[in-house]
Amino acid sequence: MYNGPDIIKFDTPEARLADLVLRRYGIVMRDRHTEKVCRALRDRITRRGDLDISSYINALDHGHSHEDDVHLVSQVTTNVTAFYREAHHFENLRRHIGSLPRDRAVRCWSAGCSTGEEPWSLLSTIAPVLDDARRQHLLVLGTDIDAPSLTKARTAIYPRAALDDIPQVYRSQFEVGTETVQPREDLRPLMRIRALNLVNPFPFEARFDVIFCRNTLIYFEPEQREDVVSRLTARMRLGGLLMLGHSETLHNLPMGLEPVGLTTYQRVA
To answer: Where are the beta strands (DSSP E) in the chain?
Structure first.
């Protein structure tokens, strides 16, 4: 755990890298993961031929290169996702959106959206529930820290095999080609994809009807996890839902948040 400004106090590059990643992104790296990332960084250094691993980690810690920062994030994050993963959440989502007052704009957030399958699943679930007038004011936000994944999420063109993960009832929300599947053109203006590090203060005051933050909290230490959940709860409307991953049951709930289903929580105060 980082406890002071002097970062040159670790015995190995692996330990220094793990500390850097924990401080900057809140991600706890296990030994095997740290060793794998260090190997990738050494390969990058060898190709560039300019720094040793210790000097390179120093440069990363001081943010000398945006390109190197982007590469580090891509190495430490796990971008495993799919359309309509954990189907019960989307069933709850559809019911919840259908129960909302008809005179307000619907807002949903996919925090840790990876390559975009999750927020596009959110949007393609919600859009058919709303009439034309309400759909015009719908907004789904997808955020992540990995720049290459965000680029894929914005482009939103996926291999045709991804169609297998999309339930038949929602396939009308997608354009299917011979080799690709992508959201319908009329849905794209309703999506915002942005870079966001969850351990930092959120740069907006918007409140959301539903927040998905799945398979992201597992990488944080308990205190960091509680802080993120507390700040997510503060960004939920009263009655809003928070959906977590299947292995992310919360034991210390922030005030006002109550469990209402499998890894599903509701803001009640």
So the answer is: 107-111, 139-144, 158-159, 174-176, 180-183, 191-195, 208-213, 236-244, 257-261, 264-267
Domains within the chain, CATH numbers bracketed = 13-76 (1.10.155), 87-267 (3.40.50.150)
- What pLDDT is attached to residue 10? 56
User: CA–CA separation, 22 vs 221, rounded Å?
Assistant: 9
Q: What is the pLDDT of residue 205?
A: 93
Rounded to two decimals, the pTM is 0.89
Query: What letter represents residue 151's amino acid?
Result: T
Beta-strand relationship, 180-183 and 107-111:
unpaired
Angle at which helices 66-76 and 147-155 cross, to 10° = 80
- Annotate 125-181 with DSSP letters as a single string: HHGGGS-HHHHTT-EEEEEES-HHHHHHHHH--EEGGGGGGS-GGGGGGEEE-SSEE
One-letter amino acid at 184 equals R
Residues of the chain with pLDDT under 70: 1-10
For residue 267 the two structure tokens come to 């803001």
Instruction: Give φ, ψ of 69 to 5 degrees.
Output: -60, -45
